[in-house]
Amino acid sequence: MVKNIAILASGNGTNAENIIQHFYENEHICVKLVLTNSQKAFALERARKLGVKCAYFSKEFWAEGSTLLTMLKAEKIDFIVLAGFLARIPDNILKAYPNKMVNIHPSLLPKYGGKGMYGDKVHQAVLDSGDTESGITIHYTNEHYDEGQIIVQYRCEVKPDDTFVTLANRVHALEYEYYPKVIERLLLE
Ligand code: GAR
User: Fold this and answer.
1) 164: burial class by Cβ within 10 Å (0-12, 13-18, 19+)?
2) 66-95 confidence digits (pLDDT tens)
3) Chain centroid offset of residue 23 CA
4) Which of 19, 20, 37, 104 should be mutated for ligand 1, with most atoms under 8 A from CB?
5) Ligand 1 atom with least separation from CA of 113
6) Residue 12 CB–ligand 1 contact under 6 Å
7) SS (H, E, C) 100-112
8) Whose CA is closest to atom 10 on ligand 1?
9) Residue of 136, 175, 178 to mutate, ligand 1, most atoms within 8 A of C-beta
């Protein structure tokens, strides 16, 4: 039985692309859908290029949720992966995918998480704090931003001469290495 994934992404989509590439021609796992809440999301472009069906839904649809859920069911989606997705997940989708929806956050949660904390803002906050380590957190999704049960964290050092760009690159490298592997483990266990 093939397990189908939907990726939710709001921005550049480098993680989405990396996950699509990882599962390309996989016998057991298929990235079937990329959904976004932003018409400008470059993730859409990446999905199209790689031949993955993608769709934009406006704010109203994300608030209401039933059209989205119908699409997820029609595409037989088993598992949802958030990859730089910045909107709240509708309650009906949370309910329909208990422990079957994961998020990645570019810090060691509970530090530097929550509404409005994403991407470079997170890295700048880490630098401002003087922390000597950062990393990534992969966690189940719930109704609060960045608060679901933590599955795993990976760490990297923060160097004294880091800028948010160099730190972001180091953290992104962890995301590319581990996110697809963790998804695969969760889906096949
Ligand atoms: C990633 O670093 C991801 O961890 C972060 O957004 C970036 C998306 O990059 N997510 C959050 O901050 C969630 N709160 P990408 O669009 O290039 O994959």
Assistant:
1) middle
2) 999 999 999 999 999 999 999 989 999 999
3) 15
4) 104
5) 14
6) yes
7) CEEEEECCCCCCC
8) 84
9) 175
Rounded CA separation 170/164 (Å): 10
pTM, rounded to two decimals: 0.97
Ligand 1 centroid distance, CA of 1 (Å)? 30
What is residue 61's predicted lDDT score, i.e. its pLDDT? 94
Tokens for 49? 């290029």
* The two three-digit tokens of residue 35, written as one number: 């959904």
**Centroid of ligand 1 to alpha carbon of 84 (angstroms):** 4
Contact 62, 88 (CB under 8 A): yes
State pLDDT tens for residues 117-155: 998 999 999 999 999 999 999 999 988 888 899 999 999
Question: Which pLDDT band holds residue 35 (cuts at 50, 70, 90)?
Answer: very high
CB atoms within 10 A of CB 93: 20
pLDDT range class, residue 63, cuts 50, 70, 90: very high
Q: What fold is seen in the domain 1-97?
A: Rossmann fold (3.40.50)
Cβ atoms of 22 and 180 within 8 Å: the answer is yes
Amino acid letter for position 124 = Q
